[in-house]
Amino acid sequence: MDKAYPVDKETIIRNFSKYASTYDKYADIQKCAASELLGLMREDGFRRILEIGCGTGNYTLLLRERFKNASLKAIDISGKMIDVASEKLKDKSIEFIVADAETVDIREDFDCITSNASFQWFSDLGKTIKKYSAAIKKGGIILFSVFGPATFRELNASLRDVFKEASTVTDNFMGKKELIKLLEENFKKVRIKEAFYEESFPCLKDLLHKIKFSGIRGNGMNGGTIFTPRALRGLEKVYLNKFKRISATYQVFYCEGRR
């Protein structure tokens, strides 16, 4: 199956902006990943930090608490997300920027460029990582978490059984080998840690509800699948037959590159 899948930035902006006010209620995995990501950061003396895809500012707050004296800039493509983050972290001396992190002009030398669960939405991650590498000073790092292609593997398998070519966009996320190659092309030292998380739901509708209100449906469904009540019942039946319960796997890669 051809895994090429165009990134529709306007749809991503619309989805994340629409549910910016509900994101914190449903983004349990993203919060878990943010804590894990910060724990993998070995340095404490960073002076200039750039956060990519700050969302509602949960990881931003962790960065500010850890690096109290650092200059901290945070970028997100959604103005609504930035509004929530700005209100949450007012008086924290953080510069918030509404911009597409793939195309924004970065001229400064940062000690650290970091991101929690946003790079999977990029159109050309390889080109963007190369740009970020040039903006990191010698000895500095890029540190990010990113969802992998096994995310929602149960849902994707069930969708293919029912709708043949349909799947969520997670099916097209970058895998471990691709990430290693990308980082090794741009950094002297590379580390990648893989983790799996799982959640269970009373019914399929609750899982889809969480995907919707946390914004992580991204572009939507491959194949333009629309869930009618009948289709949803059929999909849930297949899901339960295959997996015995409504569970969702999240695959997360924690990636570090050092210049």
Instruction: Return residue spans where pLDDT drops below 50 for at least 5 consecutive residues.
Output: 1-5
**Beta-strand proportion:** 25-35%
Order of helices and strands: HHHEHEHEEHEHEHEHEHE
Identify the strand order in the major beta sheet. Answer: 3-2-1-4-5-9-7
The rough form would be described as globular
Give the C-alpha Rg.
Answer: 18 Å
* End-to-end C-alpha gap: 36 Å
Question: Could you name the CATH class?
Answer: Alpha Beta
SS elements, strand count: 9
Number of helices: 10
Class of secondary structure makeup: alpha/beta
- What is the second-level CATH architecture? 3-Layer(aba) Sandwich
- Helix fraction, binned, reads 25-40%
Tally of separate domains:
1
Task: Provide the descriptors you would attach to this structure in a database record.
disordered N terminus; single chain; two-stranded antiparallel ribbon; alpha/beta; Rossmann fold; seven-stranded mixed beta sheet
Give a structural overview.
The protein is α/β, with parallel strands linked by helices. It has a single domain, classed as Vaccinia Virus protein VP39 (Rossmann fold, 3-Layer(aba) Sandwich). Helix content is 39%, strand content 25%. It is built from 10 helices and 9 strands. It has helices at residues 9-18, 23-26, 28-39, 58-66, 79-88, 125-134, 153-163, 176-184, 204-213, 229-243; strands at residues 48-52, 71-76, 94-98, 110-116, 136-147, 167-168, 189-201, 221-222, 246-258. A 7-stranded mixed sheet has the order 3-2-1-4-5-9-7, sandwiched between helices. Strands 6-8 form a two-stranded antiparallel sheet. Helix 3 (28-39) packs parallel to helix 4 (58-66) and helix 7 (153-163) crosses helix 10. The two termini are 36 Å apart. Residues 1-5 have low confidence and may be disordered.
